[in-house]
C-alpha cells in the first residue's frame, strides 16, 4: 500500500469524525 494514500485517508477520516462531533456534540469539544 502506498504510504501517501494511507496518510491522506487517515487525515480525511479524522476530519470527518471531527466534523460529525462538531455538528452533533459541540459540548464535548468545549
Distance between the termini: 37 Å
Low-confidence stretches: none
CA-based gyration radius: 12 Å
User: Structural class, please?
Assistant: mainly alpha
The amount of helix comes to over 70%
What form results from the Cα inertia axes? rod-shaped
Order of helices and strands: H
- Helix count, DSSP H or I runs of 4 or more residues: 1
Share in β-strands:
under 5%
Largest pleated sheet: none
Q: What is the overall pLDDT average?
A: 89
Strand segment tally: 0
Write a compact overview of the structure shown.
The protein starts with a helix and ends in a 6-residue tail after the last helix. By secondary structure, it is mainly alpha-helical.
Describe the structure.
By secondary structure, the chain is mainly alpha-helical. The chain contains one helix and no strands. It has one helix at 3-24. The termini are far apart.
Describe this protein with a few key phrases.
30 residues; mainly alpha; 1 helix
Write the topology of this structure.
Blueprint: H1 3-24
Amino acid at each position: 500500500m502506498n504510504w501517501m494514500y494511507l496518510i491522506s485517508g487517515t487525515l480525511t477520516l479524522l476530519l470527518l469524525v471531527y466534523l460529525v462531533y462538531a455538528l452533533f456534540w459541540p459540548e464535548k469539544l468545549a
